[in-house]
Amino acid sequence: MKKYAIIVFVLFTVFVFGQHKSALKITKLTGDFYVYETYKFYKNKPISANGIYLVTNEGVVMFDSPWDTTQALPLLDSIRKKHNKEVVMCIATHSHDDRTGSLGIYNQKGIKTFSTKQTDEICKINVEERASNLFEKDTFFKLGQYSFKTFYPGKGHTPDNIVIWFENEQILYGGCFVKSSQAKDLGNLSDANVLEWEKSINKVIQLFPKPKYIITGHQRWKSKKSLKHTLKLIENDIKESIQQIVSHT
């Protein structure tokens, strides 16, 4: 019976992914910027996660890593075939496994992996994959012809979430700190601080008022309204929490 159960599960997995989307999807954003989508099963449903990578003349920089380790190496292979370049750097934007899940594999491959010290401390406590290089403050990076900066807006989706800003291209990589315009709620709040998230989002809106592109951690990312939508979701969540408190007093 166990053998048949395994066969049924494998066939179901293949069927669902085949009906839903490819387990790995790469879409050109603009210029040398690409969005990659990987998937993981959660409650028997394939859930997508967005990351980005940037092709420079000194190699490819990946922002976040696939949470499904079975897609980590296929992603590297796809990038190599598509651009004839190797991934040389990977930066995780917070401690959840949809951002850090494949850091261990990339460390083994000799890719320079990065995270904040705050992210590393959380990963260490939770016995999760950790980056090999750490930074503490907002940091400016330059690789080849491109430069970008990490920015810590404050607590939000997690206490350690950062965003990436590409000044010349006006691209904001928000990761899971920024919710998709398609999102109906704030999603995973297990490590969230909703009250602080409101302040943090407003800070990002003030610093980066008119980005050309905003890449979110999940769902649809082709919208310039995702920052304001996130703020609206936060405000709705706070109102609901207040109403629940009032109704129980």
TrEMBL record:
Pfam families with a match to the protein in the record: Lactamase_B (PF00753)
SUPFAM superfamilies reported for this sequence: Metallo-hydrolase/oxidoreductase (SSF56281)
Keywords: Antibiotic resistance, Hydrolase, Metal-binding, Periplasm, Signal, Zinc
Catalytic activity, as annotated: a beta-lactam + H2O = a substituted beta-amino acid
Domain of life of the source: Bacteria
Class of enzymatic activity (EC top level): hydrolase
Keyword Transmembrane: no
Record carries keyword ATP-binding: no
Compartments reported by the entry: Periplasm
Domain Metallo-beta-lactamase: 48-218
Cofactor(s) needed for function: Zn(2+)
E.C. number(s) listed in UniProt: 3.5.2.6
Predominant location category: periplasm
Annotated family: Belongs to the metallo-beta-lactamase superfamily. Class-B beta-lactamase family.
Complex and partners: Monomer.
Protein name in the entry: beta-lactamase
Upper lineage: Bacteria, Pseudomonadati, Bacteroidota, Flavobacteriia, Flavobacteriales
Gene: bla2
